[in-house]
Structure formats: C-alpha cells, structure tokens
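Standup notes
- DV: blocked on the single-chain target, sequence here:
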Amino acid sequence: MISQYQLILRFWENLSILRGVSLRALMHLKTRFSLRLLLVPACLAATLAAQGAQENPPTVEPPVSYASVSQVNILLTQLEQTSQATQLDLAKLRIDRWKVDSGTKKQTQSNVDSLSRNLQAALPGIIGELRASPENLISTFKLYRNIDALYDVMGSVVESVGAFGTKDEFQSLTNDLTALENARRAFADRMETLAGAKEVELTRLRSQQRATQASTPGASTPKKVIVDDTEPPKKPAKKTVPKPPTSSSVTPAPKS
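- DV (later): unblocked, structure below
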C-alpha cells in the first residue's frame, strides 16, 4: 500500500519529468510543496521516540544495513564522477566565440559560473553529510533538491550550447545532463523507500506508546489532589469566673 508521503514524492518527481511543458510554471508549483510534508514521518517518529524514552529504558538503535550503506555509497560515487566530468566539460566551453548577442553570452556564462560554484563548493558538503548518515531523510532530500536545481540550470546551458556551441561540446554536456537525470531519479526512489520505512516506524512507535499508556495504572487519568488551605474560625475562649468564698472558709475576726 502506497503511503501519502510516497505519493507526494512521486508527484514531485513527475513534476520534474514534465519540465518540457512549462519549466517556470512547474517550478512555481514545486515550491508550494513544503519540505515539512516529506519530513513529517521522521519528525513524528523522533518525537514519539523521545516520549517513549522517558517511559521505557533506552534501547540501542539497530545499525544501518549493509545493503543500504552499499547502495548510497554507489550512488554518491557515481554522482561525484558526474560532478568531476561536468566541471571539466564546462571549463572547455568558449562562450566568448559564439556568434550570438552579448546578452545571451552573459546569461549562459552566468549559468556556467553558478554550476561550477555549486559543483565545487556546495555539492561535496552535502554528499559528505549524507555519507555520514546514509538513511537520514533530511540529508537525502537536501541532496535531491540540489541535484534537481543543477539539472534545471544544466538543461538551459545544454540548450544554448546546442544552438551556438560546437558539436563536441554539446555531446559532452548532454552526457553530463543524462547522468544528472539518472542521479536525480535514483535519489527520488531512495527517498520514497526511506519515507515508507519512516511511516512504518511511526506506526510502530504510536502502537507502543498506546500499549505503554494502557498498561500503566492511572497514566491516562492523572489524580487530582485538593488542598484545603482555609482555616476554620477559632472558638472564643471561655472566661474563668472566680467562685465566692463559702462560710466554712471564712475565718471569724478576733474579739477585742
């Protein structure tokens, strides 16, 4: 059964595939989908895990599976190779020799500089973050979003090179664009898998929390303690009246 988070991921990927229809319109739609929708399972799972830790003894989290680590390492290595090849091909461009107006040259050169900065500075840090935490959904989405942005700008550069550059430049950059597209799809599939796993974990934590609350006496209905701090009025103290002396206790006066 496909979860709502997996449906969101698939819809996001479909928007990217349909770029040829209207790139700007699709990018406007994509920005309306907040990252929070994809991170809801992870955030809720972390919250319930923290609540459960207060009630239950802490448990050691299971290590990441070898298959998962191996998969992400292969994907990251391929992405690093794509990044290196793209940087070399971008550096070989001779935009100043194009027979086109200066505005087009300036815009294309700006896109090339932006791509180079991202590939050299931003992308390696994001890759290192995900390599350190292979199943982190936030880091996975962060990398996917960066690849998606690279793909958009790269597509514009490839179109310009195809119109005004050489055949060899166009072929090399087309191969780089295809490699970016493959990486984008691969990490989209991985996000879908991670989102499904997080939802399963969330369901398990919810059930565990309900079971813990049900088995704890008085956990659901806390006891109320009423403190009466009003003091009752004090009764007035009774006054002691001295008794009159009796006749037997009176001593007669001596006669003169």
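- Follow-up: Residues 6 and 192 are 5 Å apart (CA to CA).
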